[in-house]
Structure formats: C-alpha cells, structure tokens
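In response to the reviewer comment on reproducibility (Comment 2.3), we provide here a single inverse folding case reported in full, input and output, so that an independent group could reproduce the run without further information from us. The structure tokens appear first.
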C-alpha cells in the first residue's frame, strides 16, 4: 500500500511504535513506568560502575582522577540500585518533589499577583488561577503521587496514539494522492 512513498517509511515505522507505546502507557502506565525505571537503573549502574572502575584504574598522581568522580559514581550507583529495587517509591519521590516545586512556584507568585492587583482593577480570575493552580496541583502531586503519574502517563499515551493515527491517516491520503497523480 505504501510502496509509492518509500521516503515516508520512517513515519510509518514511528507511527506504529508510537501507537504501541501509547497503548501501553494508556492501558498499563504502572508497568511502563516500572520497566522504564529499571532500564534507567541498569544504565545508571553501568555508568556508575564504569566511572568507579576508571577512578580506581587511574594512578593517584593522574590528573584525570578526581575524588568528585568517585562520589558521583557512588551516588549514581545508589540511585540506580533504588530505581531497580523499588521503582514505585522512586516514582512517588519524583512526583512528590515535583509537587513541592509546584507549591513553591505558586507561593512565590503571590507577591507579584498582589502587586498586579493594585494596578489592575479588572478581573482577578487569571491572577488567581496563576497562583492557585500550581498550589492545587502541587498538593495533588504530593498526596497522590502514583495516581498523578498514571494520569500523566495515560494522557501522554493518548497523545502518542493520536499522533500515530494522524500520521497513518496522512500517509494513507498521501499515498492515495500520489496514486491519483500517476
């Protein structure tokens, strides 16, 4: 069907990949996160082990040997091991930290919002939303981190599915157009 548009094969391939990943993220967000974090953890373990090996391989007098390299390698090894052993706790921690940053963002906007209200006597809706939404979302992120992750993953998965469908429809009509102009 798509033989006339071989230049679009990468789009066809990515559309299929997006669709599969999107379905996984939409219907199994927890599973996707667990495996993703385990893969990141394995990569981190390899990087940390390599960095540590290179630290001990170099002579003490070598300019390439720095104590900071060993410290970073140990930290990466610990974090990577945690990602592999307890991925759900890692997700909770990352989402909760994101929630804290959202709350701080909302709180830091309060002085600017109050200042703006002195000069603008109109609607306060936009200003209230710019302060309230980050604080509200931050609280939700902190107290419901796994559910928050699942919603984010599901929305992202749905987006990937939509992109893949749009790509496939575009390829279909492009193929049809090329066939008609032949």
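Designed residues, in position order:
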């Amino acid at each position: 069907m798509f033989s006339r548009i071989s230049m679009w094969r990468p789009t066809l391939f990515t559309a299929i990949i997006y669709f599969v990943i999107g379905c996984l993220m939409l219907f199994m967000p927890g599973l996707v996160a667990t495996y993703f974090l385990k893969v990141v953890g394995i990569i981190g373990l390899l990087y940390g082990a390599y960095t540590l090996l290179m630290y001990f391989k170099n002579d003490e007098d070598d300019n390439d040997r720095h104590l900071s390299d060993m410290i970073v390698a140990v930290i990466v090894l610990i974090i990577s091991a945690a990602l592999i052993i307890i991925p759900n706790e890692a997700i909770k921690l990352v989402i909760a930290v994101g929630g804290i940053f959202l709350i701080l963002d909302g709180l830091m906007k309060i002085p600017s919002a109050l200042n703006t209200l002195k000069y603008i006597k109109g609607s306060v809706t936009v200003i209230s939303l710019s302060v309230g939404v980050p604080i509200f979302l931050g609280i939700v992120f902190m107290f419901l981190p796994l559910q928050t992750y699942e919603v984010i993953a599901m929305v992202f998965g749905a987006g990937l599915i939509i992109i893949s469908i749009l790509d496939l429809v575009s390829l279909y009509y492009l193929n049809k157009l090329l066939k008609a102009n032949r």
